[in-house]
Amino acid sequence: MLELRPNCECCDRDLPPETREAVICTFECTFCADCAREVLGGICPNCGGELVRRPIRPTAALARNPASTTRVFNPDCRRAAG
User: Pfam families under this entry (predicted)?
Assistant: First the structure.
């Protein structure tokens, strides 16, 4: 089951579980759509995998299986991508 991490690893922007602005790689590294497009070029800086839109968990399922509250932030993300 996806963790649905709460923030962009690159800019620390909040990404609530219902947003359509979150993207992930196969390891669930999580970024906002802006960083994914403008900074990372659609490629995860951690694993080199493709970044795709994170699915939205239905509200009823979210109540039973809540999103993660653990934030992951790498301020060097922008430098690593360049």
Answer: DUF1272 (PF06906)
Contact 6, 72 (CB under 8 A): no
- Does residue 34 sit within a domain? yes
In a domain, 14, yes or no: no
CB within 8 Å of 39: residues ≥ 6 apart = 10, 77, 78, 81
Q: Are 14 and 7 in contact (CB under 8 A)?
A: yes
Bridge partners (DSSP) listed for residue 32: 22
Task: Say how far apart CA 59 and CA 22 lie, in whole Å.
Answer: 17
> pTM to 2 decimals?
0.92
Tokens of 80: 């690593």
Q: Number of folded domains in the chain?
A: 1
Domain containing residue 37: 22-81
d(CA 67, CA 82): 30
H/E element, 38: helix 33-38
